[in-house]
Structure formats: C-alpha cells, structure tokens
C-alpha cells in the first residue's frame, strides 16, 4: 500500500516542468527586485558612495600630489578651511590666477578673479577684474595695470594688490598656468563651450588660430585658444574665462571622472600652485561631491578705456567696484541665507 502511495504521489514530468517554471519566475522576480533596489540605491546613495570611494582609494594619492602644489606665501600663515559642523564649511575667499606663460616669455596673469566659495550652499561667486585695470601695485609704489602685479612680484604681490583694490581680505590664492590645462581637458574627453560663431585670431602680431563653432566638445588646444583669444575686448575675454571655468566644473563633477583625479593632478604638475593646505582641499572636495552641482555667479568690473602716456588702461567703474564690495560682504557672511545672496542680475539698473 505504501509503495503504491509513493508511486502514485511521484510528480509527473509535466508537474516538474511547471515547478521549474514557477522557480524561474520567482528567480526572475527576485532578480528584478534586486536590480530595482540596486538601481534606486545607486541613484540615492551615489554621492555618499563617491565620497567613500574617494576616501578609500583616492584621497591619499591626491593629498601626496597636492603637496607638490602647496606654496604658502612668505609672511602669511596657512589656515585650514574652518569646519562649522560635520560636512559643513564656512564661506571663504580665494584669488584665482590664470597664468599665461609661453616658452621663455615672462609670466602674465591673464585672469584675476576674486572668488567667494560657499561649500554648504554649493554656490560660488566670481568677480573678475580685467587685466588692464589701472590701480596701485602694492609693493612697487606705483600705479599700473593690475596684471603687472604678478609679473613684478608673483602670487604675493598679485594677492596684496587685489586685496588693496577690492578692499577685502583674501583667504587663499590658486594659480593655474593655462599650458597645464591642455592635457587636463584632453584627459576629460574635451569640454563644452558655447561657441556659435567661428573664433579667428588673425591680427599681425598674434598667434594664428581658428576655433570652429557648433562643436559638441572642444579639445585641450581649442580650449586653450578660447581663453587666449584677445581680438574683441578685455571684458569679453574675462567672460570667456568665466565660461571656461564653468565648463571645467561641469566636466569634472561627472561621476565617471572621479577616478581620474590623481592622473589629472599629475598632468597639472608644476602648473598649479596654491596656499590652501592639501588637507583643506581634500575636505572641500568631499563636500563638493556630497553637495549639489555648484551654482556659479559671475560679475565683471567694467572699466572705461583710457590712454595715458601712450599706454592703454581700464579705469574701473566706481559703481561696479561698490557693487562688487557689497556682494563680497553679503556672500562672506555665513549667516546669509541662500535666498538672500546678492546676484549680479539683482543690481539696480540705471
């Protein structure tokens, strides 16, 4: 009887096939759920994961490479980026210097930007000072073009001169030689630039080049030519430098570029110098990875062209300088709420 019962209860081939189909269905369903969870989790936690990956695999390498770029200024004490709360940093100011040095020519600071960085809010203010702006060169006891400060006394004199011109202190400086950016842009696969009309450098004494309009990405040499182009106006050139910086930020903050950071630092090599300590830069990098994409606001202090003793200068517009100071005061205050930040477009129009 028992044998018959066992034989009778033995699953048929059809039943076995049905059971396998059900098991496959469950596995498929479980796999789908896992994929959804991984997908959603990857989206929700991608920033913390990026920071964790940066901490585990990259921060040590990057800090060692940044040691080579760390160049504190004589007579100034290096200060860390102040931590307010965990993963929240105070606003700080930094002078961005774009250096154009070719072959054996003397170095010139083609770009001078007084910047306020608000890491907690993921916001950056860029106040550009045109290179021909007429001002006192601190340490030389003379009036001259502001970009000559770097030629006379390097980062120290440039920083002191901008402090004096703008009327506010500067926490840090960062100087980047444009030549070092060519390889970086190429390593990033190019950058997006809003070029709607061919840019042609053609004047007699200028380097000849053409940048074609409408390309989806521009390589390192094209990007370098873009920031060097000088055949329209100093103000437009300054605006192009802001656009270039914005484009670099866009490209660098893509998640798939994080692992390239050590190689990019190698490419910059001696072309990058700053008095911000490596540990401060690491802390700032992690904050940027955790935050939203930085929103960059740009303002240019416009000047009126004037020739003095046969030399062309920009005489800075006093209203522009006053508004720049107002923005610096507003952005530097950690108690200023994001919605209360002054923007260039908020300036009353005359």
Describe the structure.
The chain has 350 residues and is of the alpha+beta class. It has two domains: 2-42; 57-346, LCP protein (Aminopeptidase, 3-Layer(aba) Sandwich). It has helices spanning 2-9, 13-44, 46-67, 148-166, 181-187, 220-228, 234-252, 261-268, 278-290, 318-332, and strands spanning 83-85, 88-89, 92-100, 108-118, 123-128, 134-137, 142-145, 172-177, 199-201, 209-211, 272-274, 295-300, 303-308, 311-316. The strands form five sheets. The chain has a six-stranded mixed sheet, sandwiched between helices. The chain has a two-stranded antiparallel ribbon with strand order 1-2. Helix 3 runs antiparallel to helix 9, helix 5 (181-187) crosses helix 6 and helix 6 (220-228) packs antiparallel against helix 7. The chain is globular, with a radius of gyration of 28 Å. Residues 1-7 and 32-46 have low confidence and may be disordered.
Reported CATH architecture of the largest domain: 3-Layer(aba) Sandwich
Low-confidence blocks of residues: 1-7, 32-46
Number of strands: 14
Shape: globular
Number of domains: 2
The class by helix and strand makeup works out as alpha+beta
Provide a count of the helices: 10
Biggest sheet strand line-up:
11-8-3-4-5-12
| CATH homologous superfamily (4th level) name of the largest domain | LCP protein
Give helix and strand order, one letter per element, not per position: HHHEEEEEEEHEHEEHHHEHEEEH
Protein name: Transcriptional regulator LytR
InterPro entries: LytR/CpsA/Psr_CW_biosynth, LytR_CpsA_psr
Organism: Paenibacillus segetis
Keywords: Membrane, Transmembrane, Transmembrane helix
């Amino acid at each position: 009887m028992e044998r018959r019962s066992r034989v009778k209860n033995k699953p048929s081939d059809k039943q076995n096939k049905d059971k396998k189909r059900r098991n496959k269905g469950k596995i498929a369903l479980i796999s789908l759920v896992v994929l959804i969870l991984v997908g959603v989790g990857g989206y929700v936690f991608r920033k913390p994961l990026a920071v964790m990956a940066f901490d585990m695999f990259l921060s040590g390498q990057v800090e060692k490479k940044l040691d080579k770029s760390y160049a504190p200024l004589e007579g100034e004490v290096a200060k860390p980026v102040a931590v307010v709360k965990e993963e929240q940093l105070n606003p700080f100011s930094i002078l961005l210097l774009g250096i154009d040095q070719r072959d054996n020519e003397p170095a010139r600071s083609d770009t001078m930007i007084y910047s306020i960085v608000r890491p907690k809010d993921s916001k950056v203010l860029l106040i550009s000072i045109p290179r021909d702006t007429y001002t006192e060169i601190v340490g030389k006891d003379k009036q001259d073009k502001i970009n000559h400060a770097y030629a006379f006394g390097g980062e120290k004199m440039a920083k002191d001169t901008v402090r004096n011109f703008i009327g506010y202190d500067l926490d840090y400086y960062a100087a980047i030689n444009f030549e070092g950016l060519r390889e970086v842009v190429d390593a990033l696969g190019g950058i997006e630039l809003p070029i709607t009309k061919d840019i042609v450098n053609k004047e007699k004494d200028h380097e000849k080049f053409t940048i074609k309009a409408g390309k989806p990405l521009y390589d390192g040499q094209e990007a370098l030519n873009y920031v060097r182009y000088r055949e329209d106006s100093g103000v437009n050139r300054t605006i192009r430098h802001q656009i270039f910086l914005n484009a670099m930020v866009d490209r660098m903050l893509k998640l798939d570029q994080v692992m390239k950071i050590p190689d990019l630092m190698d490419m910059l090599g001696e072309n990058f110098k700053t008095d911000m300590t490596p540990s401060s830069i690491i802390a700032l990098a992690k904050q940027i990875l955790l935050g939203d994409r930085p929103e960059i606001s740009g303002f240019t202090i416009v000047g009126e062209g004037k020739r003095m003793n046969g030399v062309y200068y920009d005489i800075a517009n006093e209203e522009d300088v006053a508004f720049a100071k107002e923005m610096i005061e507003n952005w530097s205050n950690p108690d200023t709420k994001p919605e209360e930040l002054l923007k260039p477009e908020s300036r009353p129009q005359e």
